[in-house]
Amino acid sequence: MKQKTFLISGFIASLFLAGVVSFYASSSPDGLEKVAGDIGFIETAKENINSKGILADYGVKGVDNSRLSTGAAGVIGVIATGAISTGFFLLIRRKSGGKK
Amino acid sequence: MHIPDGFIDLPTSAAFAAIAAAGVAVSIRGSKSALDEKTAPLAGLTATFIFAVQMLNFPVAAGTSGHLLGAALAAVLIGPFAATLAITIVLILQALLFADGGLSALGLSIFNMSLLAVWFGYGVFLLVKKIMPKKKISISIAAAIAALLSVPAAAAGFVVQYAIGANATFSVSAVLTAMIGTHLLIGIGEALITFFAVGAVLASRSDLVYGYKNETSKLEIRSN
C-alpha cells in the first residue's frame, strides 16, 4: 500500500469512528469517574471551565439531534487533531538538509 | 482517566505539570531522530486515530465504561518519544475543546497517560518482544500485553497523585484497590484494540511500525 493511500485510509477510518460509531459508545461513567463515585471523592470535582463551550462533552451546542451533535463534534475533533498534530510533528521532525 | 479539576490540590497539580512539561521537552528532542518526512505524518495520524477511538467508550462492568488510552499503541507505532507528544496533543485538545479533563489537572493527566503509560508500556513491549520468536505476530502480542498493563500503570499514577494531594480524605488503599481492579478490566479492551490496530498496520505497511522497523534497520542506522 502506498504511504498516501495508507494515511488517507487511516484518516477516513478515524472520521468514521468519531463521526458515526461514537454515537453507539457506552455512556456509563469511565473507570476513574466510577471509582470516584463509589468511594465518594467525586464530590471534590469542580465544573470544567470549558463546560459551557460549544463542543463541551463531545456535542455541538444548539444541535438537538444527539446522533448529529456527537458525530459533528467527533468530525471536528478528528480534523483538529489531525491538522494540529501533523503540523506539529512536521515542524519538529529531522530536517534532511541538516540546517537548524 | 481524564482527571477533572478539584480531585487533586493545586500545589500537587502544579508539581506534576512541571514534570509533564519537562517530559514533553525531552520528548521533542528525543523524537527528532524518529521523525522524518515519512514518519511525521504517520505520527499525526496516530494522534488522530487515538482521539477518534477515545470517543468509543466500551462497557467493562455493570455501570462502568472504558476507552482506549492508546499509549502502548502509539509507542509501538511511532516510538515512545513521539507517542508522548501524540497523547499530550490529544489530552490538550480534549480539555480545551471538549471540556474532557480539567485544565488545572492537565499536568496530572499528561504525567499518567503520556509519560507513565507510554514508557511503562514501551518497556513491557521491549521485554515481551525479546522473549518471543521473531515473527510479526509477536509484535502484535507484545503490544497487546504492553497495552493491558499500561492502563493500570496510568491508574497507579493517579493513586500516587491522590495520596500526595487529594482534596478528599477517603483511604488511599481503597482508591488503589478500586482503581487497579477497574483499570485491569479496561486494560483487556485496550489489549484487544491494540492487538488488532498494530496487526492492521503491520499487514499493510510494516515498514512504518517503529517497534518492528527498529529490529530490521539497525545496520542501516549505524552506517549513517
Give the arrangement of secondary structure elements.
The complex is a heterodimer of chains A (100) and B (224).
Chain A: H1 3-19, H2 31-39, H3 66-92
Helix pairs in contact in A: 1-3
Chain B: H1 10-31, H2 39-54, E1 58-61, E2 64-66, H3 71-78, H4 80-98, H5 106-131, H6 136-165, H7 172-205, H8 210-216, H9 218-223
Antiparallel strand pairs in B: 1-2
Helix pairs in contact in B: 1-4, 1-5, 2-4, 3-4, 3-5, 3-6, 3-7, 4-5, 5-6, 6-7
Explain this structure.
The complex is a heterodimer of chains A (100) and B (224). Chain A is mostly helical and 100 residues long. Chain A has helices at 3-19, 31-39, 66-92. The longest helix of chain A is centred in the last third of the chain and has 27 residues, at 66-92. With 224 residues, chain B is mainly α. Chain B has a single domain (10-223), classed as Arp2/3 complex 21 kDa subunit ARPC3 (Orthogonal Bundle), CATH 1.10.1760. Chain B has a two-stranded antiparallel sheet with strand order 1-2. The longest helix of chain B has 34 residues, at 172-205. The N and C termini of chain B lie far apart (42 Å). The chains are: A mainly alpha (100), B mainly alpha (224). The interface between A and B is large, with 61 and 73 residues.
